[in-house]
Amino acid sequence: MKKRKMKIQVVAMTFSLLLLGACQQKTEEKQEKQEEQTQKTETMSNTAEHYTFELSDNVTRKKVTFKNRYGIELTGDLYIPKNGGSNLPALAISGPFGAVKEQSSGLYANQMAERGFVTLAFDPSYTGESSGEPRNVASPDINTEDFSAAIDFLGLQENVDRDKLGIIGICGFGGFALNATAVDKRVKAVATTSMYDMSRVNAEGYFGSTTPEQRTKMLEQMSLQRWEDAKNGTPAYPTEHLPEKLTGDEPQFVQEYYDYYKTERGYHERSLNSNNGWTTTNSISFMNMPILTYIKEISPRPMLIIAGENAHSKYFSEDAYKNASEPKELMIIPNGVHTDLYDQTDVIPFDKLQAYFKENLK
């Protein structure tokens, strides 16, 4: 274990940028609210767009848009059980960090809709089909707000019981999911899978490996880059995010990311992790804005934290669990790695997620 940890620490600075790198309404009032959110719906077929998974025969999918508190229009896919019903529980789902709704979050939404939930998988601000300029930037505040905006939208749907709303966050959006739940008391339960604390990993590196000197140097470089970006009128992007080919010398977790994002398994043309990545100054706001300061304020609402036994990111989940108040549960998947919980339906504990949310969204 120590040897593996040391190896990750050695490459932490090199690869730090890798991960730092919404129905007709019953009343006129509801219709007006939806118009304010500029909701647009369009029935989608599985062949109309590139998805990395098959749409269930028991689920319908609609493209929707809605705005967050900052006026950024977000685009999502609304998944609805074909057997219908009213007063249904609903889930807002996003992640991984740098992915799009046609990847993992859509897969989760499809699976949970099969199990009786209305689900919304959405592209975060500045990414995918959501608006916001410049492209491919992240924010600890705005990305937390994106989840609350999704809760706004779900709470206006006539087939949804707004007292039965939950969140699932994957990878880096696991941290944002916890942060959103802490502040947004409408959320009744939260679950994370392969969670990352993006503030922590940017500020400290993996396993706290970033020295004060390295942190200062990184901040100096990004500060100077701002002048270049201002002069050019556009932000700089990395020439390479994930490698186009593996040499075999990469850390195991980089190989795992490559196997998902750069192959037919998970590649998507709008996914920044499948392409050139975040802006080179993306880490700035994360480095002194911790997102899990108030994790205890999720209580008395429950949280379920799921991580793979062999995931390089497992310690984020373990520490979040330790710092949270009851009720809470940590579920470790035997032999699982970080990316197994992106798309491996025989590994992701969907039955557990179904039981957890059925119990807590009632």
Give a verbal description of the structure.
- The chain has about 350 residues and is of the alpha/beta class.
- The protein has a single domain (about 1-360), classed as Alpha/Beta hydrolase fold, catalytic domain (Rossmann fold, 3-Layer(aba) Sandwich).
- It has helices spanning about 1-10, 30-35, 105-115, 140-155, 170-185, 200-205, 210-230, 250-260, 315-325, 340-345, 350-360; strands at about 40-45, 60-65, 75-80, 90-95, 120, 160-170, 190-195, 305-310, 330-335.
- It has a 9-stranded mixed sheet, sandwiched between helices.
- Helix 9 (about 315-325) links the parallel strand 8 (about 305-310) and strand 9 (about 330-335).
- Helix 4 (about 140-155) packs across helix 5 (about 170-185).
- The radius of gyration is 19 Å and the shape is globular.
- The N and C termini lie far apart (about 40 Å).
- The relative contact order is 0.15.
- Mean pLDDT is about 90; it is low at about 1-30 and about 35-45.
Summary of the model, kept short:
The chain has helices spanning 2-12, 28-36, 104-114, 140-154, 172-183, 198-204, 212-232, 252-261, 314-323, 340-343, 350-360; strands at 42-43, 59-67, 73-81, 88-94, 118-122, 160-170, 189-193, 303-308, 328-333. The chain has 362 residues and is of the alpha/beta class.
